[in-house]
Amino acid sequence: MRQFDTNNHSVFLLTYHLVLVTKYRRQVIDDTIAVRIREIGETIGKNHHVIFLEYNHDRDHIHILFKTHPNTVLSKYINAFKSASSRLIKKEFPQVRQQLWKECFWSQSYCLLTTGGATLEILKKYIESQGEKR
């Protein structure tokens, strides 16, 4: 059964899948750096009502499954996360600068997907059936 979140005026379940890729797809993310990236993302997430549900990485990208509130501006969270993690990773792990000679750690683009449990077809049928007598 799904666990819904609430606030004073609404009930919601908002989950997203975020993929961030390193600049030039450089393979600079090891396990230690990945742990630090997660810590930064979760810390910044507290200010944006973002809670990590799952996190994993490869050498050139990360995946985050997270939930959030309806009033969260996702682009502000993602930009704050990318900016802070880029700055801190390059400062704390100087070897990264050798492979990323410019200022950016992350690619400018990102992939953000909603993760609703029902398919669009099921939702369309549900909405179409409203008001029908059974």
UniProtKB/TrEMBL annotation:
Output this protein's name.
IS200/IS605 family transposase
- Give the Transposase IS200-like domain ranges: 11-130
Name its GO BP terms in alphabetical order.
Answer: DNA transposition
Under the GO molecular function aspect, what terms does this record hold?
DNA binding; transposase activity
SMART domains tied to this protein: Y1_Tnp (SM01321)
Gene3D superfamilies named among the record's database cross-references? Transposase IS200-like
SUPFAM superfamilies noted in UniProt: Transposase IS200-like (SSF143422)
